Amino acid sequence: VEAPRRGDLPPEELRALARELADWISDYLERVGTLPVSARVSPGDVRAALPATPPEEGESMQDVLADFRTLVMPGITHWNHPAFFGYFANTGSGPGILAEMLTAALNANAMVWRSSPAATELEEVATDWLRALLGLPPGFEGVINDTASSSTLYALAAARRLAYPEVARRGLFAEPPGSVYASEHAHMSVERAVVALGLGREGYRTVAAGEDLGMSARALSAALAQDVAAGVRPVAIVATLGTTSSAAVDPVRRIAELAREHGVWLHVDAAYAGSAAIVPELRGPMAGWELADSIVVNPHKWLFTPLDCSVLFCSRPEDLASTFRLTPEYLRAPSGGDARDLMDYGLALGRRFRALKLWFVLRYFGREGLIERLRLHVRMAQELAGWIREEEGWELAAPQRFSLVAFRYAPAGASPSEVDALNLEILERVNASGEAFLTHTTLGGRVAIRVAIGNVRTTRDHVARTWALLTGAAAASTRSAEDD
Amino acid sequence: VEAPRRGDLPPEELRALARELADWISDYLERVGTLPVSARVSPGDVRAALPATPPEEGESMQDVLADFRTLVMPGITHWNHPAFFGYFANTGSGPGILAEMLTAALNANAMVWRSSPAATELEEVATDWLRALLGLPPGFEGVINDTASSSTLYALAAARRLAYPEVARRGLFAEPPGSVYASEHAHMSVERAVVALGLGREGYRTVAAGEDLGMSARALSAALAQDVAAGVRPVAIVATLGTTSSAAVDPVRRIAELAREHGVWLHVDAAYAGSAAIVPELRGPMAGWELADSIVVNPHKWLFTPLDCSVLFCSRPEDLASTFRLTPEYLRAPSGGDARDLMDYGLALGRRFRALKLWFVLRYFGREGLIERLRLHVRMAQELAGWIREEEGWELAAPQRFSLVAFRYAPAGASPSEVDALNLEILERVNASGEAFLTHTTLGGRVAIRVAIGNVRTTRDHVARTWALLTGAAAASTRSAEDD
Fold it and tell me: Do A118 and B39 touch (CB under 8 A)?
């Protein structure tokens, strides 16, 4: 066997290229606000621009980076754009980017303590700092997963094990049916987890929400009573603090009481809004979440940490670990030891060193820096909500909460279906401008436009300009309807 | 609300820091081979060195980076060290590191096509390139997950849905029990997935392996027949190409025939060894895998791509997507469109732009570069196996396969339990040297030391030095036993 001609990038070449990218990234972040937010491409465009087959011989990284700039970049929707208000806006912040450079270079796997002690212990430290910032009691232990979907799946798996103590051994086959309860506005990941766990959609009870779009505790209580009477076993209740559609808040304290009464696991989905608990005056809606068995908060949503970083807090961590623990010999430390192996707290075995970026972000911003930024985001959302309330023909589609505003243009005389079509048209016009990016939802079966504020570079001007785009689009859409 | 004093890192500061890290990373990769491979810390050391509470005010990134160097680095086990031979060795290569810088800066989420078209389409392109390199037919479509544990979970969830067509609706409660079949040497992630899916460990059939440690097709056939006769429903068969303990290979063609006969989903776990199929003369053991329904190959293991990057290939992608598809309004594109939304192919909703690093790696190395490197790794493992065979008292614990060698020191006259203790002692001595890092397993209930080669910087000298350390440790351990 001859020596390979191709090694890793020689250090000097890597140094030069990484420096080049250091420049590119800081230039990019400086100018990202001037780019069209969403990609101007049609399905298949990017794929068609790339060769159908891999290269036979290695290529120069300069060529690869040139293609990245000219072929890939036009297809990027810029989540780091300050007027990206779709889904939940987020930030790949500078400190987070620096951490990801190091994470990739170290390439450590925090699956067991021994496989990289600092990666495990920094995860303990960074998640405990976050716990303290959120005002949660020390009984909550955190682990970092990729996404809230995974965090929720793991929490519900632990709940299922408590509801069905023999499930790990004999499965669900001989068991009475069980149910997971969540608001009709809960995130899709809850239903997907319920199905994955073998409980079936029939075991997924969507509980009606009240006028404020928070789960009705009375409806929950009735659903629990009905199920228990029918021999259906309550497995878990999921309370959402900050729903995706409208950032609505379930009455978590009242729900916690019901969970306790029925001996059911309470999981809190605070993936987006949980970060608000860092701000003293925004913590109110979370009151009672400290009674939960598990809580998910995603720093990659509203805490300036690049994807992916979802923290699952659990107040009974041993129940979580017991659900998954299975240590084959090839992962056992020869000398045993009493260190925590974080692979026990979920299903993913490979675990990137994600704690580093969370730690960098928390240190760089500090508690005060986080508070000021989150507070500003909420203030901007409130101001936008005020403009909407005051403008003829516009209405909030839900009570304004946290940094999210859900609203619609509903001019007098338009039918609900006309209003729906009109708002989708307005949305398309705004997004086509390239100056802002918004997404929609439905609330009560009717289309609502969402503005989700969450990027550290977003200023009042970005929000004001988006509002001008919205009213302009509404006028243009109305004119074009009249021309028909 | 006053303007926050703390914004993101100003562009010029980010530029300077990213350049500093560009230097640090290239220096690190140049000297990583001179560092002790595994961290010299005890449980709690790193945690104790860090403040128990987060900072009130934001800190300078220079301070944060200084702490990273002095407090975190000593606790890092260096997976990028060329003499890291534990678990499955891997590489955070230069092209992969550069890609991760860009991924963090763009912070795009490839959950739906529209949320970042290029991230979705590059994932299609890069996984299709990998498919072609592996010699799999075009019917296989790839998606990138975080880990093989997730990929296997998703594949088995699709299998479960075909075995129980009503599972998504009514769960497993009213169903006859079902089974998943895998070799006694299969990875723990299969069992964890079976438990997560609600099938229970009683539904996990470990099939005996033959002398070559590959699954016995006869035993599998018998287990299937027995279950069918008993009314147990076969759900899936998992064939492993390259087990974790010894890189053993299940007879996949014969298993595929049995899967077809019983109408059962065949999932192939080639997370580690699948990459070998890029090398023509190493493809033999994979013959028949093209008959599988799903195959997992992890470029973050033996394909020079930083954590995390696990590719799940599926020859019936619509069955995979139908298992998970659930598109709430807030993720729907207003204009519909026929683009693929990759969130449909698994449970994680947030999806990092992982395709970029795979694309960079495949382009930088090219088919030839990959072949030469993989070939060298296998050649070094074969050479080490030769030294072991020839050395008095040493033995291979399993047939040598791919780039993995499993072996033990078993001097004449020592009892099996003495041999076990001796090998764990040898392992500890070698790891304590700091010059190499190895892990162990058990095969046939007896301890075996593993040397897993997979880093792009590993040379014959690293392997030879490790062998010298092993024989030296064996001599020292024998002497110390005689002194007792």
Answer: yes
Integer CA distances (angstroms), B68 to A64, A70, A103, B88, in order = 31, 35, 11, 26
Q: Which two tokens stand for residue B391?
A: 């050395």
The C-alpha atoms of residue A252 and residue A295 are separated, in whole angstroms, by 11
Please state, in angstroms and rounded to a whole number, the distance separating the CA atoms of residues B432 and B422. 15
> Among A416, A423, A453, A421, which Cα is nearest to A440's?
A423
Q: Which residues of B touch A146 (CB under 8 A)?
A: 146, 308, 348, 350, 352
Structure token pair of residue A61:
């990284």
Eight-class DSSP state of B199: -
Q: Please classify residue A221 by burial: count the beta carbons closer than 10 Å to its beta carbon, then call 0-12 exposed, 13-18 middle and 19+ buried.
A: middle
Q: At what angle do helices B94-106 and B355-390 cross, to 10 degrees?
A: 150
Contacts of A1 in chain B (CB under 8 A): 375-376, 379
CA of A128, closest CA in chain B: separation in Å?
Answer: 8
Residue B452: beta bridge partners? B404
Q: pLDDT for B200-246, tens place per residue?
A: 999 999 999 999 999 999 999 999 999 999 999 999 999 999 999 99
Write the DSSP assignment of B291-303 as a string of letters.
Answer: G-SEEEE-HHHHS
CA distance B218 to chain A (A): 26
For residue A3, the distance in angstroms to the closest alpha carbon of chain B comes to 7
Please tell me the distance in Å from A219's CA to the nearest CA on chain B.
22
Confidence of residue B484 (pLDDT cuts 50, 70, 90): low
Does the CB of B437 have a partner CB in chain A at under 8 Å?
A: no
Which residue type sits at A230? A
Question: Would you call A464 an interface residue with chain B, using a CB distance cutoff of 8 Å?
Answer: no
**Mutation to test the A interface, candidates B326, B347, B382, most A Cβ within 10 Å:** B347
For chain A, percent helix, then strand, then coil, each to nearest 5? 50, 15, 35
- Which B positions 49-78 lie with beta carbon below 8 A of chain A? 50, 52-59, 61, 63-65, 68, 72-78
User: Residues of A with CB below 8 A from B27's CB?
Assistant: 11
Nearest CA among A21, A122, A331, A105 for reference residue B307: A105
> Is the sign of the CA dihedral B218, B223, B224, B228 positive or negative?
positive
Q: B177-212, pLDDT tens digit by residue?
A: 999 999 999 999 999 999 999 999 999 999 999 999
